Amino acid sequence: MDARALTAHGSNRDAGFYLTALTYAHYLWQRGQSARAILKLDRALLSELKGNEPVLLDWPLPYQAMAWLLQHTPPEFFIGNPRVHFQHLADRMNEPRREQRRWRTWACWAIARAVRPEFAADPKHIVCEPTVAEITTQLDLHGVPSEAALWRTVMRQFN
Q1: Residue 120 and residue 82: Cα distance in Å, rounded?
Q2: In sequence order, which residues have a C-beta less than 8 Å from that of residue 27 and are 6 or more positions away?
Q3: In angstroms, how far is CA 57 from the centroid of its own chain?
Q4: What phi and psi, each to the nearest 5 degrees, are found at residue 78?
Q5: Domain locations along the chain
Q6: Do 25 and 44 touch, CB atoms closer than 8 A?
Q7: Measured on CA atoms in the order 134, 159, 60, 112, is the torsion positive or negative?
Q8: SS3 letters for the chain?
Q9: For residue 121, with 0-12 CB atoms within 10 Å meaning exposed, 13-18 middle and 19 or more buried, which class applies?
Q10: What is the pTM of this model?
Q11: Tens-digit pLDDT profile for the chain (159 aa)?
Q12: Cβ of 134: how many Cβ atoms within 10 Å?
């Protein structure tokens, strides 16, 4: 697999794109490319899903997968600083579906903080970091049905 797998979807960010992004993330993980796998999970999370797509029954939003990748990346593998990545991405999110995509990114930021607390925030990028309660509320408002509960289940593993 390569980037053509995603570009084949054109501008569609639907369930097909979602499944391709998840598959590509798995492919990259199997090849020791953890950082790129994390970026593909980002792409999956930023897909336009309503919550009733059949693919979500087998492959729910990848909050658990994100936590697992962060937890299981061998120390010798470069993944940059996921906390900073998510902090910057969330703070600079654009349309379409800005709020949904922004809060999904903040949710991943919280996962990165919980799973890998050794990663520091970017001291040069001043941003108001949301609380778990704020992220939960915003996922309830802007996410798909049960998304906030799914994310909270992942977060409870690290509290």
Answers
A1: 9
A2: 1
A3: 18
A4: -80, 125
A5: 4-156
A6: yes
A7: positive
A8: CCCHHHHCCCCCCCHHHHHHHHHHHHHHHHCCCHHHHHHHHHHHHCCCCCCCCCHHHHCCCCHHHHHHHHHHCCCCCCCCCHHHHHHHHHHCCCCCCHHHHHHHHHHHHHHHHHHCCCCCCCCCCCCCCCCHHHHHHHHHHHCCCCHHHHHHHHHHCCC
A9: middle
A10: 0.95
A11: 999 999 999 999 999 999 999 999 999 999 999 999 999 999 999 999 999 999 999 999 999 999 999 999 998 898 999 999 999 999 999 999 999 999 999 999 999 999 999 999 999 998 999 999 999 999 999 999 999 999 999 999 998
A12: 14
- Structure-token pair, residue 149: 């509960």
The one-letter amino acid code at 34 reads S
